[in-house]
Amino acid sequence: MSNVSKRIKISIITINYNNVSGLEETILSVSKQNYENIEYIVIDGGSYDGSREILTKYNHVIDYWVSEQDAGIYNAMNKGINIATGDYLLFINSGDMITADHVIEEAVKIGLYEDLVCGNLWFIKESSRREWVTPDSISFQTFLTSTIPHPCTFIKKTLFNTIGLYNEQHKIVSDWEFFLLATCKYNCTYKHINLFLTDFNEEGISSNPENFSLIDKEKENVLKKNFSFFLEDYKKYMIVSEELRRVKYIIRLKNFFKKLSKPS
Fold it and tell me: Glycosyltransferase 2-like domain: which residues (predicted)?
């Protein structure tokens, strides 16, 4: 690895609230990284499930941690951003894990130069796994229909000086808003690296179907404020998307009842 690569400092930020088992798994996955120039920050929202004891237990592998009440997910992330001193930030929240011990080192070897450097991730739910391969190029259309995955994206620290911190008014989509503004308003550079960086736990708030309507509403508000010209396109997409969700739900129900009707 070149001397320039060795000097690149990665700040990994973990936020946690009452997820003691997930927190320990995340800390262990970070602590096993063989890339040396890592700063590790954990922001805990005043958990009462034993998380504080886990943070004390692993104090020797954490550069900074705090356990105090916060104002939500993005307030906690912003605390971490303000503390971080790395060249790039990577958000690995409690319950998520870095896929292998050498992954951060491999990413740095491939090259971290662009404003956003995005790898791939695995969605983990109970015993199942499915992959998300990030696109090689992105456009406004990317954010109308999807996003780039927050837990496997190296974000250049200076972007937060240019764009600002995460919008704490949103509960779910502030990272989506940040990436949208970065690429489509501020013309930030982007690169995809074909490396699976993160095991992402699908039990989180953004993966819960009960929150889909809130996600849609928050995205609509972002577009109305920043890209009003494209708002109608988004609304049309959401109508189609909602119909697809309805059809998929009906298909699942039909398959369920078919299984019930089969003779044992």
Answer: 11-137
CA angle 141, 142, 144 (to 5 degrees): 60
Strands 128-132 and 153-156: unpaired
Query: How many CB atoms are closer than 10 A to CB 254?
Result: 10
Helix-helix angle 212-226:174-184, to 10 degrees: 30
pLDDT in tens, 177-236: 999 999 999 999 999 999 999 999 987 655 566 778 898 899 989 988 988 776 677 667
Task: Give the burial class of 171: count Cβ atoms within 10 A of its Cβ; 0-12 exposed, 13-18 middle, 19 or more buried.
Answer: middle
What count of other Cβ atoms lies within 10 Å of the Cβ of residue 208? Answer: 13
In a domain? residue 255? no
CB atoms near residue 37 (< 10 Å): 15
- Phi, psi dihedral angles at 21 (to 5 degrees): -70, -45
Rounded to two decimals, what is the model's pTM? 0.86
Of 159-163, 168-172, 198-202, 239-243, the one with minimum mean pLDDT is 239-243
User: Residue 67 is part of which domain span?
Assistant: 3-208
Cα distance between residue 249 and residue 252, in whole Å: 5
Q: What is the CATH number of the domain that holds 152?
A: 3.90.550.10
CA distance 150 to 125: 18
C-alpha–C-alpha distance, residues 264 and 251, integer Å = 22
Please, are residues 107 and 118 in contact by the beta-carbon 8 Å criterion? no
How many structural domains comprise the chain?
Answer: 1
CA separation for the pair 178, 131 (Å, rounded):
23
